[in-house]
Amino acid sequence: MKTEYRIVLILVMLTSVCMVPAAAEDTPIGGDQGWYAVYCNVYDAKIYLDDKYITTTPQDGAVTIPVYLSAPYTTIRVQKFGYSTFTDTIRDVPGNGETVKLYTTINKIPVTTQTAVGGDVGWYVVHCNIDAATVFFDDVNRGEISQGMVYVPVYSTATPYREYSVKKDGYTTYTATIVTVPGKGETIDLYATLNPAAGTATTAPAIIGGDTGWYLVYCNVDGATVKFDNDVKGQIEQGSLKVQVYVTGTPYKTFTVYKAGYAPYTGTIDKYPGKGETVDFSATLIAESATTLPASTPTQKSPVSAGLCGLALVIGIAAASLVSRK
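^ thats the sequence. predicted structure below, dont judge the formating
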């Protein structure tokens, strides 16, 4: 009798010894870890890294996303319904314990482009260097370039477009193939560059000067720098900056307000002042106080744990059989 119990005790001890390594082998994968601090000018936009949904943008500051140095992300996409999608390549990889800041800007799609009816709607944004050029999708007129672009709605239930063309008298027509289709609320950027046709005389650029108007830029941070396209116009003082522009000058397309310690703000210039008129713009800068996203620790289960469980089952059956012989 004592021999039988000794055998059972030995078998139980062997089972315990076999199970311990299985639990110990569930070690974390990853190693050294850094962070991406993602800033965005719009609240509750979705952040995707390498096409994987991560989280949404916070109302203030940045959202901090962990990244393992052994498997860094390469692309970032930020999108929200009614806004143009931001997509960019991630060029910087943080070191161990370091943080890399990623700034993203999405602009609201003009209301006039959201009035089409039918199905889930996405958008093509056709960018071109020549205003008033006509855009065709599969030989169907989809509008003219204005302020460097035109929005073209597309429905998930419609037949996908195959190509687009941009045309204007005096310029060589640009044609390219369309290889991707936007999903609901997404935008896809398409680009066209028009060059003067051979033997066509180009019109001399308008002389800058003459009648003037004004942009009045409001901001919540004094000392912030204001830039129109790539031209620095001055700094915010007492909450605003007044910028003079010539009515005959080349229209600006974007304005950016930035200051160290704050996420930069970029907006679209879609209104132009007439002679003696003033157009107001507002920019709200958000301090770079990071909102941390808890890091998840991936684990890898031992590939032999199933075999050990089977061994433990066999040992248990053997022990039960010995006891039953009593």
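Residues 33-108 form a domain with the Immunoglobulin-like fold (CATH 2.60.40.1120).
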